[in-house]
Backbone:
C-alpha cells in the first residue's frame, strides 16, 4: 500500500511557509519603514523688539529662556506652524511681509535625533545656512534677522518624536 | 458430458464474480445449481478460497505491524476539522508546523530567513554615530554676517544668532 501526500496538503504547507515569510518580511523591514518616517517640527516665528513690553501668552514655555538670553522688552508670536518634514523635502515658512524665508529640510533621522538643515533667506539671498540636530525636549532658536518694523525675528524649532 | 462442459465454460466466467459476490440473484441461483452437480467447478471455487486465504493472512499480519502514521494523521485532522473549535485552537492548529519539520521544505525556508536576517542586520545594527547632547549644531555659515552659537544646557536651548546690521537710514540731503 502506497500513501502519498495529497496536493491539498502540499498547498496548505506552501501557504503556511508563504505566510511565515510574509510576516518575517514585514517585521524585518519595519525598522526601515520607520526610518523613512516623517518628523514633526513645531516652528514659531517670534518678533522680538523694544517697542512695547510683555511676552505673548502663547510663548509662555519660552518666556524664561527668552528673558535670560535676550534683552528685548517685547516678544510677539507672528506665526506658528507644525511642519511634517520628510527626508530631503524642503519646507519653508515666510514672514508676513515675505521678505524673510526660513527653509527647513530633514536630512537625517536616527533614533531620537532629527538632523535638520536650516536656511534663512532674505529677499532671495541666503543670509544663514546651518545644520542642527534636534533631540527630544531640546529647542533651537535661530534669531537675528532684522524685522521691517524694528527689532529682530527669532525662530524657535522643536521636534516632536 | 459435452453439455456439462459447455455449462462449465459459461459458469467459469460467472464463478469469479460469484466468488466476489458481484453476481445478480439470477446468476447466483444458476451458479449454485451448477456447483451442486459439478465437482470440477466446486474444486475451482475451493481453489479461489484457498488462494484468497493465502494472500489474506500475510497482508493482515503486515497490516497489524504497520500503523500507517500518515493515514491516521490525515484521519485525525479530518475529524478535528469536523469539530467546532475556538479561534485560538484553530490558529494553534494552523501554526502547527510539525508535519513541515518532517519534510525537507524547511531547508530553503531556513536558508531564506538566514539570508534576510543577514541583510536586515546590516541595516538594523548599522553603526550610527553616537550623538552627544552638546553637539546640536553641526555647522553654521553666513557669507554676509557674523554668527554666534550659544548653548543653554540647563534649559536645553541652543541659540544660533545672526548679527545683522541695522538697515541704514537714507542719508539726509
Residues:
Amino acid at each position: 500500500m502506497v500513501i502519498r501526500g495529497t496536493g491539498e496538503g502540499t498547498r496548505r504547507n506552501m501557504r503556511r511557509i508563504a505566510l511565515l515569510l510574509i510576516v518575517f518580511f514585514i517585521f524585518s523591514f519595519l525598522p526601515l519603514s520607520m526610518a523613512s518616517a516623517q518628523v514633526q517640527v513645531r516652528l514659531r516665528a517670534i518678533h522680538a523688539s523694544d517697542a512695547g513690553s510683555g511676552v505673548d501668552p502663547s510663548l509662555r514655555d519660552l518666556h524664561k529662556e527668552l528673558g535670560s538670553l535676550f534683552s528685548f522688552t517685547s516678544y510677539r508670536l507672528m506665526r506658528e506652524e507644525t511642519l511634517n518634514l520628510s527626508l530631503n523635502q524642503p519646507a519653508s515658512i515666510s514672514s508676513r511681509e515675505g521678505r524673510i524665508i526660513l527653509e527647513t529640510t530633514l536630512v537625517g533621522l536616527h533614533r531620537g535625533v532629527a538632523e535638520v538643515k536650516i536656511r534663512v533667506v532674505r529677499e532671495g539671498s541666503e543670509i544663514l545656512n546651518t545644520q542642527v540636530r534636534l533631540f527630544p525636549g531640546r529647542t533651537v532658536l535661530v534669531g537675528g534677522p532684522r524685522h521691517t518694523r524694528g527689532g529682530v525675528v527669532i525662530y524657535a524649532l522643536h521636534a516632536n518624536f | 458430458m459435452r453439455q456439462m462442459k459447455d455449462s462449465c465454460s459459461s459458469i467459469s466466467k460467472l464463478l469469479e464474480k460469484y466468488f466476489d459476490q458481484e453476481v445478480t440473484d439470477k446468476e447466483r441461483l444458476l451458479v449454485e445449481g451448477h456447483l451442486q452437480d459439478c465437482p470440477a467447478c466446486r474444486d475451482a471455487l475451493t481453489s479461489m478460497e484457498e488462494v484468497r486465504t493465502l494472500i489474506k493472512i500475510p497482508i493482515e499480519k503486515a497490516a497489524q505491524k504497520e500503523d500507517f502514521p500518515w493515514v491516521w494523521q490525515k484521519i485525525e485532522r479530518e475529524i478535528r476539522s469536523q469539530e467546532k473549535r475556538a479561534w485560538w485552537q484553530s490558529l494553534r492548529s494552523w501554526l502547527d508546523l510539525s508535519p513541515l519539520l518532517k519534510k525537507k521544505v524547511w531547508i530553503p525556508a531556513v536558508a531564506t530567513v538566514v539570508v534576510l536576517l543577514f541583510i536586515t542586520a546590516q541595516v538594523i545594527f548599522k553603526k550610527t554615530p553616537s550623538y552627544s547632547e552638546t553637539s546640536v549644531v553641526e555647522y553654521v555659515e553666513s557669507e554676509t554676517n557674523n554668527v554666534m552659537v550659544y548653548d543653554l544646557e540647563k534649559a536645553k536651548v541652543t541659540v544660533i544668532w545672526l548679527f545683522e546690521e541695522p538697515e541704514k537710514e537714507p542719508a539726509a540731503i
Remarks:
- Residues 69-124 of chain B form one domain.
- Chain B touches chain A through 49 residues (CB under 8 Å).
- The longest helix of chain B spans residues 39-65.
- The mean pLDDT of chain B is 78.
